[in-house]
Amino acid sequence: MPTKTKRPRSRKKRRSWVWRYRRLLYLFGLLLFTALAGAAYVISQIPLPKEAAGQAQTSFFADSAGNQLAVLHGGENRVPVTYDHIPKVLVDAVVATEDRTYFSHGGLDPVGIARATLADLRHKRAVQGGSTITQQYVKNVYLGRERTIARKLKEAVIAIKLERKYDKRQILERYLNTIYFGRGAYGVQAAARAYFAKDVGSVTLPEAAFLAGAIRSPVAADPARNPAVAATARDRSLVAMVRAKYITSAQRFDAEHEPVASGAIVEAATTYARPDKGTQYFVDAVRQELVARFGEDLVLRGGLRVETTLDMRAQIAAYDAVYGLLNRVNDPAGALVAIDADGRVVAMIGGRDWATSRVNLATGTAGGGGGRQGGSAFKPFVLAETVREGYTVASALPGPAKIVLPKADRGRDWEVNNYDKESFDRLNLVDATAHSVNTIYAQMVTAVGPDKVVDMAHKLGITSPLDPVVSIALGTQNVSVLEMADAYLTFSQQGVQVKPRLVERVTLTDGTVLEDARPVRTRVLERAQADIVNYALEQVVDVGTGTGAKFGKPVAGKTGTTEKYGDAWFVGYTPKLTAAVWMGYASGQSKSLLGVHGVPKVNGGSLPATIFSRFMSAVAKNVDSGDFAKPASFPGKLLPSAGRIPPGSTTTTSPPGPTVPSPSTPAPVPSSTPAGTAPPSTTRPKSTTTTGPPAPSTTKGGLP
User: Fold this and answer.
1) What's the DSSP call for residue 547?
2) Are residues 359 and 252 in the same domain?
3) Is it the case that residue 511 has pLDDT exceeding 80?
4) Does one domain contain both 544 and 665?
5) Does any domain span residue 194?
6) Helix axis angle, 263-271 to 188-196, nearest 10°
7) Mean of pLDDT over the chain
8) pTM of the predicted model, to two decimals?
9) Neighbours of 37 (CB within 10 A)
10) Helix, strand or coil for residue 322?
11) Which helix (H) or strand (E) holds 431?
């Protein structure tokens, strides 16, 4: 009986408590429902934020044959690939390691979150991640790594919305293209290249397991730093793959016995896509050009596909020609630029080793250094202007060892000396060019005017600023190797200037074309005028100072040597290919080219001409390089002599033997020479000071 009387009282008491607080409980439930419904409504109305973080893509440079030349990235090496390009073994490894229920959950994994929470509580620290792959993607791309409750709630909401917008393959593709793997590599393609020097489609099971294991701690798991940590991370992924039934225990056993710190993994980052044979200088020149045109962000992070003009066969030949010869420890530096008939820079040697010096000696100030004086290699610009002014190259002028041009140097008398005090009889302009006679070229620049020579040089392709001073005829102005090659290219193209270019085509990853280059041509000289200049420069190689440049094909060019042998040049060309060669010390002209490889005084006709010949022999000897058109006549007015021979300095009569026929003595007022005049003779002129061909000449205090 007492028991029966107690039970009704207990029920009544409980019913009374619920009844007593029924309104409060109802209100609380109503408020909770309203809050959840309101939150759900607000969430449903908020669109997905724009993908803002971590979407930079790596840009690729290719040579003219389409082979990869270099990769550029602004701190984030990222190469997106499609899901179909990612091997199944890598997908399995990542899913098993990071989110085993990925293909079945809706963006969140409550069981995984609970399991991770319990593990963290048990160890009193974060030991297990509870985020799904979708949540990791949201964190990486949309939200960043701030750790707050608000950010976690936002992450969950966006993850659910993503799962409704994209299918599993699309989300996983995005995730695998954005996750960081260490070594600056974002995404599986960049990671495969950074660690294994291979395409992601070729990764093996041990490699896939390593990449999956490295996701949580990519820096700590780098095999080059911590091979033990890397092996632990890889083996953890292999265990997860067995549990998920993606691989067998036997496959796991075999994979675990692969050395995780193999040479390929450790060294791939430093060897992958590493340019060779001086291509680093070319790549940097392309980078600078593209940054100036499109901006640094697009070049380094925009995933550009850049087809360059570099011909690796020509580049290798150029590097071997320059540094196969200048191969000793204390040898000077060398530079070479080769341009084809359409303006493509097919080879560029800007220095010996990019790792040692990043100053590009081929591009002058644009390459981080300065230009170099051109020496007598500048004389063809004076000759071109002389011909354009209507003077005939049959004009004969005295070539004494020393000459004074009254008030020619901005009102002051200008004294000019030939190399080694050589003295020549009267020479026509072809022979004066072939033997680089300073005293005759001083008279030429005085006659046509240095301002017009500056204008001609700029039209031919020289872009550096030039001062209109008479010494410009002797190469006192700073120019780059690239400029000189381009200017001489104008001669090879019969007077048509072709703008040099390093890039053929630039596209975005979606195929959008940003640039599709075509030759840009401008006529500077009439064809007949260019033919005359070419004829004169052919004689330089045939019988003059540039005979060392011969390689069995028609070739024209000019030597150049600066004061005190600070720089030496040879710039030459066939009708299809032009190459400029420079050598000197990178520190400047303070150090002379004396005794290099046993040559007492290195001038343009010695080692630079040899380098040119070696290069051309390698790239053009077995190719039809064409021939130069021969001028039918040398029309025009006679060029007057503008100087006076100082007392004690005379021109002498040549010894018996063949001489250079000269036209009649020019009158004070130039007269015209009838068309049809035979080409001037190119027989070696006799001199009172030498019996062999003269080396490039110099001026007093000036340049050859």
Assistant:
1) G
2) no
3) yes
4) yes
5) yes
6) 110
7) 81
8) 0.71
9) 10
10) helix
11) helix 429-434
Distance CA(580)–CA(489), nearest Å, equals 10
Q: Residue 342: inside a domain, yes or no?
A: no
- Residues 82 and 202 placed together within one structural domain of the fold: yes
Clarify whether residues 494 and 353 are in a common domain: yes
- Model confidence band, residue 312 (pLDDT cutoffs 50, 70, 90): very high
SS3 category, 515: strand
Give residue 139's pLDDT: 75
Residue 251 lies in a domain: yes
What tokens appear for 14 in the block? 């409980």
State residue 689's pLDDT score.
Answer: 34
Domain assignment present for residue 562? The answer is yes
From 228, 251, 271, the end of a domain falls on: 271
Of these ranges, 6-20, 76-90, 541-555, the one predicted with the greatest mean pLDDT is 541-555
Q: What is the DSSP letter of 140?
A: I
Compute the distance between CA of residue 673 and CA of residue 610 in angstroms, rounded to an integer.
38
Which is nearest to 402 in space by CA: 578, 650, 46?
A: 650
Domain shared by 569 and 663, yes or no: yes
pLDDT band at 435 (very low <50, low <70, confident <90, very high): very high
Give the structural domain span for 190: 77-271
Distance CA 571, CA 609 (A): 8
The last residue of a domain, from among 249, 271, 293 = 271
Element (H, E) at 621: none
Q: Which residues pair with 404 in a beta bridge?
A: 415, 644
Backbone angles phi, psi at 384, to 5 degrees: -60, -40
- The residue type of 628 is F
Give the integer Cα–Cα distance in Å for 661 and 361: 42
CATH classification of the domain holding 262: 1.10.3810.10
Contact call for residues 348 and 316 (beta carbons, < 8 A): no
- In angstroms, the first-to-last Cα distance of the chain is 133
Q: Is 455 exposed, middle or buried (0-12, 13-18, 19+ CB in 10 A)?
A: middle
The CATH number covering residue 377 comes to 3.40.710.10
Query: pLDDT over 70 for what percent of the chain?
Result: 75
Write down the pLDDT at residue 197: 83
Q: Are residues 124 and 263 in the same domain?
A: yes
pLDDT tens-digit series, residues 609-663 = 999 999 999 998 788 889 999 998 999 999 987 666 766 554 433 333 333 333 3
Phi-psi region of 107 (alpha: psi -120 to 50; beta: other; left: phi over 0): left
- pLDDT classification of 227: cutoffs 50, 70, 90: confident
Pair (258, 357) in one structural domain:
no
* Segment 450-464 mean pLDDT: 97
Amino acid identity for residue 665 in this structure: T
3-state SS of 301-347 is: HECCEEEECCCHHHHHHHHHHHHCCCCCCCCCEEEEEEEECCCEEEE
How many domains is the chain partitioned into structurally? 2
Burial class (CB in 10 A: 0-12, 13-18, 19+), 673: buried
